[in-house]
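Help: why these numbers?

___
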Amino acid sequence: MATRSERLRQVVATRLRSVVAVCVNIQNPHNVAAILRTCEALGILEVYVVEEDVPFRPAGQVSQGAERWVRLLRFRRGEAAFAALRAQGFRILAASPKGDLPVEELPGEEPLALVFGNEVEGIPPKLLAHCDGTFRIPMWGLTESLNVSVAAGISLYFAARARRQALGRAGDLTPAEQEALFAEYIERI
């Protein structure tokens, strides 16, 4: 059985910085928490949170402590979040029921940020204009959309899988980044 330190090293080695979730004005604390938990479980290191209209409050019982292991980058304006992503070379794709790209075809060759919007209003048009495109989860039933946390889970799984396949390894942190993250995690135990 692996020691706690060995387990942390294994987890750190599989972290992805090149796949990011962007949560825009998500209202329901359970949805926010479920997205954080999904990101942590998939090895996604960073979640960008845009709080233009709705403050970010994850429900602790749902997140199961995932916020301790995922880096939250909080922004009052979406434009600032997108500018930060662009500066790091991310392609930005927005989730949309009528999106252009099927989720199964999310690209893995470059850093990818997936944007998820408010449960009622979606992603504001002013922020959609900053995205490189849209993607969709094909729907086969009569329901027109999924809960945002479910949509994020499905989409982030496909994005992380595509990225790992393109990289040919589980994680994308440099050895120095892994050591720094390991030190961060050790302090949180």
Notes: Residues 108 and 161 are 8 Å apart (CA to CA). The two ends are 18 Å apart (CA to CA).
